[in-house]
Fold:
Amino acid sequence: MKAPHNIKTTVSILLIFLTCLFALNRIMPRVIINDSVPSEEFSMARALDHLKIISEKPHFVSSSAHERVRVYLVTELEKLGLEVEIQETQVLGQKNRTGTKVHNILTRIKGSEPGKALMLLSHYDSEVSTSYGASDAGSGVVTILESVRAYLAKGIQPKNDIIVLISDAEELGLLGAQGFVDKHPWSKDVGLVLNFEARGSGGPVLMFVETNQGNQNLIRAFDRANISRPFSNSLFYSIYKLLPNDTDLTIFRKNADVQGYNFAFIDDHFDYHTALDNYERLDRNTLQHEASYLMPALDYFQWRISMSFLLKPI
Ligand SMILES: [Zn+2]
Structure:
């Protein structure tokens, strides 16, 4: 007996939906929050402590909360024994002709070998609105802060220098990144960027390469970096290119021909740039997924691989 056409269709859609759900469940790590994580490992509890303070209020450029967040981040980086620089410079945006004075937060960990540096990048300003900036991009900022702390606790000197840039005024048109790339002397040292962004409050963290050249070596390196739950495909970058949004990494690619990896999540996208982008709504499993990229990536890109291999445009 032939099943009616609409039953077959319904069953097929249901099966596809369940398969997708199963696949996504396997991609996302399950977060464990406890206070007894060894100091060399990423601690969700510590990351959330930072995030709660950063996302207490909307902290768009020129707000008092914006300055408070900057002071907090500088203090936390200094607690790790790092020397912190604030790059203060006037920038006129090349895209929308908006100008402002930016205050980029910068620090550098010295490597054991000469050569190009790895950059860890995210932005600390929130959108000029009611957004609390917990996901966009507080999540990226605390992932970097806590991962760098854990990395330093291992006591391993990296091969290449690591530059941390917590950029300013991303929401006004990537102005902090532009100020760094066009004006800061360290910009010519950067070989590869890991950029952390958000366009929602949850879901798996996607990786897509942003490059002007071929990306074969970058994909190979990513494959070998021992990342436990990688989630990527070539479609992501194609879709991203069609969207009006750019990220700070776009400035590195366009103005300085520096390539890198973008890490971003997009579930609950209706939270983006609204008051729903807050501490409570950021999915903790998403934050754990973000950390599950950066911790092994730091080990791999700084210790086991030469930057010159990555930078060959194949
Ligand atoms: Zn952002």
Notes: The domain at 33-310 is CATH 3.40.630.10 (Aminopeptidase).
